[in-house]
Amino acid sequence: MSNLFVGVELGGTNLRCAVIDEADGHKLVSRYETPTAAHEGCNAVVKRIGDGIIAAMKEAGVGPDDVRAAGVGVPGPIDQLRGIVHSTPNMPGWNMVPLADILQKATGLKTYVENDANCAGWGEYVAGAGRGVRHMMMVTLGTGIGGAIIIDGKLHIGRDGAAGELGHVCIIDGGLPCGCGARGCVEAYASATAVVRRFIHYLDDGWHSPLHEKRDFLTSYDIFTAAEAGDPVALRIVEETGHFLGVMASDVAELLNPERCVVSGGMIQAGENLFNAMRNTCMTRNQHPGRTMEIIPAALGGNAGLIGAADQAKVKLAAGDVI
Amino acid sequence: MSNLFVGVELGGTNLRCAVIDEADGHKLVSRYETPTAAHEGCNAVVKRIGDGIIAAMKEAGVGPDDVRAAGVGVPGPIDQLRGIVHSTPNMPGWNMVPLADILQKATGLKTYVENDANCAGWGEYVAGAGRGVRHMMMVTLGTGIGGAIIIDGKLHIGRDGAAGELGHVCIIDGGLPCGCGARGCVEAYASATAVVRRFIHYLDDGWHSPLHEKRDFLTSYDIFTAAEAGDPVALRIVEETGHFLGVMASDVAELLNPERCVVSGGMIQAGENLFNAMRNTCMTRNQHPGRTMEIIPAALGGNAGLIGAADQAKVKLAAGDVI
User: Fold this and answer.
1) DSSP code, position B181
2) Residue B273: what pLDDT?
3) Residue of chain A whose alpha carbon sits nearest to that of B248
4) How many Å from the N-terminal Cα to the C-terminal Cα in chain B?
5) Number of H helices, E strands in chain A
6) What is the CB neighbour count within 10 angstroms for residue A217?
7) Does the pLDDT at position B261 exceed 60?
8) How much is the pLDDT for A226?
9) Which residue of A14, A106, B279, B285 has the smallest Cβ count within 10 Å?
């Protein structure tokens, strides 16, 4: 039997599909990418996913009989068991979409859906920075903060498939408002958007930084670069961000005592200043004898989500989950 | 083969041992209790545990050949696999004690050790308020705040056996100092001790309450009783306490998405005022579609720890863990 699986990553900007050889170190046999064009609405995007899967198979020179299953990572809450997408906060018009069923009919492949952050975390776990441990947390830093939790070698999705929402751990009760409606979530302090917002707040309070002239079109990347170059305001922001992430990670350590925390997303470009602040806060907070947790950057870059989606399809197929 | 197990609960004040029939609904066949007398030091207490196990077996009319194993719940961090107690914060002189080995020699029973809060949580899971679910959190409210996490029907202890420390989840970064050395832990706001401290703080700020005359010897129970009787300051403290616990519980819900949160310990006497405030904060914070978590009081009272310790011994014996 073949060990080929299809992995799909549905992003707000791009849709990516790959045929992956699970027997050959999660190697990408083919890779197809196209703009998601989310503004065209749900039906158009769903059709595009099916077409993308078929295109990836064609590029790999295989058909539905050669591929065992497809896994699709979706940016939003889903019902894994039924393959239904509840909604996608950043794409209009998605509401209780039976995505697995539709794609299965379109492609001829048994199809599973999973949350995109869970796919990326699972990808790092099986093929990247999480290899060799049994308990892992992954935190994905971007416009928002996502994550995944691996317990005893299994992706933990919880009762309703809604586990792993690391971005909405509360670090300051009553603190800054978060996009989720609550206050004080770590996402409101340490996402790329929040980093820029906090930096501008410092500027507006009269702190001096060479970045002042870029005030209205700053990115988190500008801030990380300035911190590396020695800008004390930028460095302070990076260290505070690491601290906030460290508070959240220390909460996960208190609750779950994982061996490793893998950090992914564009913000890991902030480098050791960010990581060391995060490690320092974790070490200071978690004084339990014997408790240790490595905090390291992700290893797979942009392929974690594809690899994880394909491998989750393999795991679910083996477990006999119905879609 | 018999289905008798011994459960032991080692408390700072009392030591309790029971022979429990796992085949008969976790029934306590015998129950032996004696003061721990922790001030006499580690060796005396360890000997007392062995004597207590033997006394419980004698009272049940059985011997080491009739009992399959013993489980001991210990108030402190332990190495479950080796049966070693790292330390016990509230009992002097315990430091890397090979408790399982010593007790096994003293009693003739295969012996397992586990954290006491984990035992209580497991007891509620198998025989109390946690029955019928797969993912559960238990929070134990007392002088400190402890807890346990059950994932997919298994007690989750983590890499170093240190998981389930719900009391040290940070709810306010940089907030009140906690006994653990960190700041802002939920224990610093919502333990019985913290409740009294916060109430006195209100009194000293000039709030009026009939409890003022008891200022120097208040207990959390006084405050809960006053809240029931309509004292607005006491009621405010109870509702704030429920809110703080709700923030912590909502963090666990974001991370793990359990079906049920079981709350145990003397403080559940605070009743529906406490529970409703906790539920309200959880509902407000956790807006993820499909995510739900019941928050209910524990059902077993003082026997949860004994039943959980005995049942964990059964689970570990079946899994073939070495001590």
Assistant:
1) S
2) 95
3) A170
4) 22
5) 9, 12
6) 7
7) yes
8) 96
9) A14
* CB–CB contact A251 B154 (8 Å): no
Predicted TM-score of the model (pTM): 0.95
Q: Counting Cβ atoms within 10 Å, is residue B134 exposed (0-12), middle (13-18) or buried (19+)?
A: middle
The single-letter code of the amino acid at B257 is: N
- Reported as half-sphere exposure (CB side, CA atoms, 13 A), residue B268 has a value of 16
Q: What is the band of B323 on the pLDDT scale with cuts at 50, 70, 90?
A: very low
Q: Which residues of A touch B250 (CB under 8 A)?
A: 170, 182
Nearest CA to B71 among B35, B112, B30?
B112
Look up residue B207 and give its DSSP letter: -
Cβ neighbours of A87 in B, within 8 Å: 289
Nearest to A115 by CA among A144, A83, A91: A83
Among B251, B284, B286, B291, the strongest candidate for a mutation testing the A interface, having the largest count of A CBs within 10 A, is B251
CA-nearest residue to A174 within chain B is: B172
Query: Which chain A residue lies closest to B134 (C-alpha atoms)?
Result: A159
Q: Which residues of B touch A154 (CB under 8 A)?
A: 152
Q: What's the Rg (C-alpha) of chain A? A: 20
Instruction: Identify which of B152, B255, B293 has the shortest CB distance to residue A166.
Output: B255
Give the whole-angstrom CA distance, residue A169 versus residue A152: 22
Per the CB < 8 Å rule, is A77 touching B165? no
CB atoms within 10 A of CB A319: 8
Q: In the prediction, which pLDDT does B321 show? A: 62
Whole-complex ipTM? 0.95
Predicted confidence (pLDDT) at residue B203 exceeds the cutoff of 90: yes
Q: Which contacts (CB < 8 Å, 24+ apart) does range B239-242 have? A: B239/B273, B239/B274, B239/B277, B240/B189, B240/B198, B240/B277, B241/B189, B241/B190, B241/B195, B241/B198, B241/B267, B241/B270, B241/B274, B241/B277, B242/B270, B242/B273, B242/B274, B242/B275, B242/B276, B242/B277, B242/B278, B242/B280, B242/B281
Residue type, A104: Q
Percentage helix, strand, coil, to 5, in chain A?
Answer: 45, 20, 35
- In this prediction, the residues of chain A whose per-residue pLDDT falls under 50 are 323
Residues of A in contact with B239 (CB under 8 A): none
The pLDDT of residue A287 is 79
Name the percent of chain B in helix, strand, coil, to the closest 5. Answer: 45, 20, 35
Q: What is the pLDDT of residue A2?
A: 87
* Helices of type H across B192-303: 192-204, 220-228, 232-256, 272-285
- Spatial separation of the C-alpha atoms in residues B267 and B195, rounded to whole Å: 10
